[in-house]
Structures are given as C-alpha cells and as structure tokens.
Design goal:
Organism: Maribacter aquimaris
Strand order of the largest sheet: 1-2
Radius of gyration: 23 Å
Strand content: under 5%
Largest sheet: 2 strands, antiparallel
Helix content: 55-70%
Number of strands: 2
Shape: flat
Protein name: DUF4393 domain-containing protein
Length: 237
C-alpha cells in the first residue's frame, strides 16, 4: 500500500481557510481578462504565495527548533499539547507566521507561542492571543517605536507635544525616515492597542497656543503601559 504523502502546514492551512482549487480557478480566470497586467498578476496570485508562504514557514520552523531544544518536556506540557487551547494557539501561530516578513517579529511571535505552551494558557482568555494579533498588525517601524519608548521613558517625561516627541525620535533613529503624519498614525495605533499611554494626549504638530491651559496643567509624557511592558518582554528575549 502506497504511503500517503504528508501534507505541508501551508496545505493544511490553505484548506482550513476555505480557499480551494475551484475558488482559485474562478479568481484566476477573472484576473486573466485584465489587459497586459493580467498574466503577471495571475502568476503573483496563484504561484508566488505558495513559495513565499513555504519560505516563511521554513524560517519559522528553524526559529522554533532552537527554542524547543532549550526546554524539557513534562507531563503538564504533554497534556496541554493535546488540548483545544494548544490547537487554537498552534493554528493562530502558523497563520500569523505566514503573514510576517520581518525576522525579528517572527522571532517574537515564536517567543509568544512558546510562552503559551510553557504556561498552558487558556486561548480564549490569554493576553498572548492579543500579542499574536499585534505582531501581525504592527509594522517593524512600530516595533522600533515601542522599543524606543520602553528604553527612554525618562527622556519622554513631560514631552508635551508631538513636535518634541518626533524630534527626539529622529535623534534616535536616523535610518528610517517617516513624516509627521505617519509618525502620529503609528503612535496613535500603538496607544489604541493599549501598549503605550500619552497621559491624556500630546499637543498636535504645530500647535503652540499655551493660553488654553491653566496652572493645573501638567505636560503629557509618553510611557509604557503594563500591557506594553509585558509585550516588550517577548521582544527583548
């Protein structure tokens, strides 16, 4: 009897997401009708994803291999990896790994996943579930921003305005050039995720009017939240 070929993780996940060959055929046929761009776009949609996803999975496997080697298994871990919680973390982890390009973020993703295994996390209640989502949605620039804030909280005390904050950040990182609008968007997104706080909000770019504030006004600072500090623990591992 011929031994059945073992399916790749990408194939299993592809089936789990509901994207089958029929759907691919319909989409491919539609794309082909686009003048001169169609064939190229078709190749990118149909052929490239499998190659890129497999590459990302292979890179993630190497990272995970190193982390697993450092850990001794026990009865609790063995029981946990048979649970629904582990199944959900496992699926979430591999799906996330295929969407992450940056190696450092992928390494952090593996740190979060391994922590979930070691602490036998409840998937539905675990903050690690949030962190897996954060790592997919945050850009590498935002990870740099979070790290900068984490290590420079004293410098950012009473920073007061986005003008001052932006100037300080540009002194720190001169390699990546972003404009004021991008910077503010990234900061607000990180704050909305609960990873940092600006103590009520920084003054916007270009706003210089201090008459609006009375003697009780305290200049806002940029600080890490407790959630942000927990998130940073995985980044700096």
């Amino acid at each position: 009897m011929k031994k059945e070929r073992r399916k790749l993780p990408s194939e299993i996940l592809r089936k789990a997401t509901g994207i089958d060959e029929i759907q691919d055929g319909i989409i491919s046929g539609a794309i082909s009708t686009i003048p001169w761009l169609g064939p190229v776009m078709n190749e990118i949609f149909i052929q490239v994803p499998n190659r890129i996803q497999q590459k990302r999975i292979n890179e993630t496997v190497q990272i995970l291999q190193e982390k697993v080697r450092r850990i001794e298994t026990n009865e609790l871990i063995e029981k946990y990896i048979q649970s629904d919680d582990f199944y959900d973390f496992n699926v979430g982890f591999w799906k996330s790994s295929m969407r992450v390009r940056d190696e450092k973020i992928r390494n952090t993703l593996a740190n979060v996943f391994m922590d979930s295994v070691l602490t036998q996390e409840n998937y539905e209640l675990s903050v690690n579930r949030l962190f897996l989502d954060f790592l997919v949605s945050l850009s590498p620039i935002q990870i740099i921003l979070i790290s900068y804030i984490n290590f420079n909280e004293k410098l950012l005390e009473k920073i007061e305005s986005y003008d001052n904050f932006f100037a300080k950040y540009n002194e720190y990182d001169k390699k990546i050039v972003i404009d004021q609008s991008e910077f503010k968007f990234y900061c607000l997104d990180i704050e909305n995720k609960g990873l940092i706080t600006t103590n009520g909000g920084l003054r916007d770019f270009g706003v210089k009017d201090s008459i609006l504030y009375d003697h009780t006004y305290v200049e806002p600072s940029v600080k890490m939240t407790e959630l942000g500090k927990r998130f940073m623990e995985f980044i700096i591992k």
